[in-house]
Specification:
single chain; alpha+beta; elongated
Amino acid sequence: MKPNPNLDELLSSFMDGELSPRQRTEVQRLAAHDPQVARRLQQLQNCRSLFCALPAAKAPGDLLDQIKSSLERQSLLQETPLIGRRSLGAWQLAFRRFVSAAAALVLMGVLGAVIYQIVSPVPQGGAGSGADTARPVEREPAGAGTPALTVADGGFTGQLELRTARLVQADTFVARAIENSGLSVRTEPGLVESQRVYRIAGSRASVNRFVASLSGVWNNFDGAVLRVDRPDSPEASVVVEAVTPEQAYAIVAQNSTEASVAAATGYAVANHLEKNMPGHEIRPLNQYQPGSLLAAINKPMPKETGPDTSVPTAPSPEPEAKVSLTIVLRNL
């Protein structure tokens, strides 16, 4: 029979009287019905009898020294690889720090490129460099009176989705803010218990006034997502997750649709990096403070001035670009 450590331990405890009465009964029943167990029990009993029959002998005098030497040898053999493991661990730690620093530099480079795209001046449509455009204007005859070439703003279309657990209070505040901003609104029919949909339209200033009015209660929303439609492909919109009121104001406040799309793209990348960075160490890219949103709406924008001509011409009034924003309130 192949030795079984668990069975041998049980049988040894049976012979030493360390089992409970119930366990002893189980072992006796097992030995009575299993010949192999009975044979193994007999073998262990014979070994015990032979061991007990051995005469007592005195231990060798150098046994203690041999045990000490063996222990010292084992401790010395264990200390040598421990030093190697420590040096290997230190090298791995230094390599990880180097890789982390390189990854941080790469992320900072990408972030710097995004910031430069956002804060760089937006080129005017149909205009070249400043030196090339100024020289033909000065040579133009005074009586020509040719108006400057301007590119009309195509407007702004987007959707602001606000998630909240208090739909009724949020709906009341949004409706009051739309009314105070003087925007034209159309309420979309939807599931009364789960969402409210508003479609507002107006100028950039009026929509910015509405967004600024939401900054005071923005923290009460559990999530905010802004989708900005591209003028060339409306189906491929730019999605800005975890958008802040400052970012929404900055996107709508741009002077053209292309600039709004570029700003939304930059904020989408920045929020994605901030979400996935350990510790959220990237500061949000916004140039407006929450307290200055309402004041920034009334600030006059600087106007471009050109060379004075002898024959003044009345500029043709151009319609202000309309902003269409869909407000979706979702109940969590």
